[in-house]
């Protein structure tokens, strides 16, 4: 079950935040922004402190999941540096597929929408409905 | 030296790519216009182009009405060409002069050329005799567009209405064409194209009807 989704842009700004279940407390917009900024920083540092890989292996992509006693947080970073972060229950071990689909929705309903400004918060009705369908079907 | 040869091979491969691209475009230009094979354009590619047209126009207008007028103008330029192409390709149709036949032509042939399907309905307005409505339940080119709340009166279908206006004009049935988003259950983008024919067209219709 996916509880919530955050989308963070390349510079660490929060561009989308939505809760999908009532089991999760709604963060205030300020808290959500702080979370996004902090996660962005930690993610960047994590890829830096990873033990030096061999020369031609690709660089570490940073944090992929964070586990706690009650939930798991999945992070999917696109080649363009946008991060999709989903908060799920512990049953979800792999979420790359679903997050990839969300990335597709972002490409379709945010980027191809003439009223969307790059790097800015996503306000698109179509994106909301399609995302909800995807989460419910998951 | 090593970097030099590397640069050379890179340049060579780039030239190869360039050659390929120019060959492909040459092939495109040599294609027979009358070939009935349906040329398809990627929806994503078109969506990006259309989004950019809207964004470009939006920066050069003052209000929603002006924006729609601008989009309609772009559509009209497309419409004139689509009309010629449809006429050339569809050997079975001849130039229509009557209002109803023109409408059917737009509803079926033009829609097939543009969107690869027929429009979902063609109705006459119950209030005015000179008004007709063409409905498309989900126009493909508007698929990815969400109009923000502060612009709810804006209908991106103005582009389509521009195309229709130009075609109606080419068929000697000039009309004022507007587009309206009328969402229905599960069809948030349902677009109605409203044609209001000029009075002289309606007069001519009456005369033609009487002389029959």
TrEMBL record, chain A:
| Gene Ontology cellular component list | endoplasmic reticulum; Golgi apparatus; TRAPP complex
**Compartment list:** Endoplasmic reticulum; Golgi apparatus, cis-Golgi network; Golgi apparatus
Fetch the CDD domains from UniProt: TRAPPC4_synbindin
Keywords assigned = Endoplasmic reticulum, ER-Golgi transport, Golgi apparatus, Transport
Would you kindly state one Gene Ontology biological process term found in this protein's UniProt entry? endoplasmic reticulum to Golgi vesicle-mediated transport
Against Pfam families, the record matches this protein to: Sybindin
- Predominant place of localization: endoplasmic reticulum
Indicate the quaternary assembly: Part of the multisubunit transport protein particle (TRAPP) complex.
Q: Which family does it belong to?
A: Belongs to the TRAPP small subunits family. TRAPPC4 subfamily.
Q: What is this protein called?
A: Trafficking protein particle complex subunit
TrEMBL record, chain B:
Statement: the UniProt record of this protein carries the keyword Ligase = no
* Membrane-traversing stretches: none
Name of this protein: Trafficking protein particle complex subunit
Species of origin reads Coemansia thaxteri
- Please name the Pfam families in this protein's record: TRAPP
Q: Name one GO biological process term.
A: endoplasmic reticulum to Golgi vesicle-mediated transport
Q: Which family does it belong to?
A: Belongs to the TRAPP small subunits family. BET3 subfamily.
| PANTHER family xrefs | 41-2 PROTEIN ANTIGEN-RELATED, TRAFFICKING PROTEIN PARTICLE COMPLEX SUBUNIT 5
Protein origin, superkingdom: Eukaryota
- Sorted UniProt keywords: Endoplasmic reticulum, ER-Golgi transport, Golgi apparatus, Transport
GO CC terms of this entry: endoplasmic reticulum; TRAPPI protein complex; TRAPPII protein complex; TRAPPIII protein complex
Q: How does it assemble?
A: Part of the multisubunit TRAPP (transport protein particle) complex.
Q: Does the keyword Transport apply?
A: yes
Q: Which InterPro entries match?
A: NO_sig/Golgi_transp_ligand-bd, TRAPP-I_su5, TRAPP_component
Q: Where in the cell is it found?
A: Endoplasmic reticulum; Golgi apparatus, cis-Golgi network
């Amino acid at each position: 079950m996916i509880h919530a989704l955050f989308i963070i842009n390349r510079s660490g700004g929060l561009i989308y935040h939505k809760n999908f279940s009532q089991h999760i407390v709604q963060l205030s917009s300020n808290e959500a922004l702080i979370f996004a900024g902090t996660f962005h920083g930690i993610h960047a540092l994590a890829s830096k402190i990873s033990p030096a890989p061999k020369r031609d292996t690709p660089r570490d992509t940073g944090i992929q999941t964070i586990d706690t006693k009650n939930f798991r947080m999945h992070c999917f970073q696109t080649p363009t540096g946008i991060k999709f972060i989903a908060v799920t229950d512990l049953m979800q071990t792999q979420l790359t597929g679903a997050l990839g689909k969300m990335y597709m929705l972002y490409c379709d309903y945010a980027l191809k929408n003439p009223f969307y400004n790059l790097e800015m918060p996503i306000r698109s009705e179509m994106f909301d409905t399609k995302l909800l369908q995807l989460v419910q079907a998951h | 030296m090593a970097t030099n040869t590397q640069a050379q091979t890179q340049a060579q491969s780039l030239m190869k790519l360039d050659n390929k691209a120019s060959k492909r475009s040459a092939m495109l230009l040599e294609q027979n216009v009358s070939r009935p094979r349906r040329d398809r354009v990627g929806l994503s590619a078109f969506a990006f182009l259309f989004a950019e047209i809207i964004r470009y126009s939006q920066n050069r207008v003052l209000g929603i009405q002006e924006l729609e007028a601008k989009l309609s103008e772009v559509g009209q330029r497309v419409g004139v060409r689509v009309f010629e192409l449809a006429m050339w390709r569809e050997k079975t149709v001849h130039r229509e002069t009557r209002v109803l036949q023109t409408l059917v032509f737009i509803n079926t042939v033009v829609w097939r050329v543009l969107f690869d399907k027929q429009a979902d309905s063609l109705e006459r307005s119950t209030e005015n005799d000179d008004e007709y409505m063409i409905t498309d339940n989900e126009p493909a080119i508007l698929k990815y567009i969400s109009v923000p709340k502060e612009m709810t009166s804006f209908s991106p279908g103005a582009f389509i209405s521009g195309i229709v206006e130009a075609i109606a004009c080419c068929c000697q049935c000039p009309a004022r064409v507007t587009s309206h988003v009328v969402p229905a259950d599960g069809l948030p983008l349902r677009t109605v194209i409203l044609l209001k024919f000029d009075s002289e067209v309606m007069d001519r219709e009456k005369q033609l009807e009487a002389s029959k």
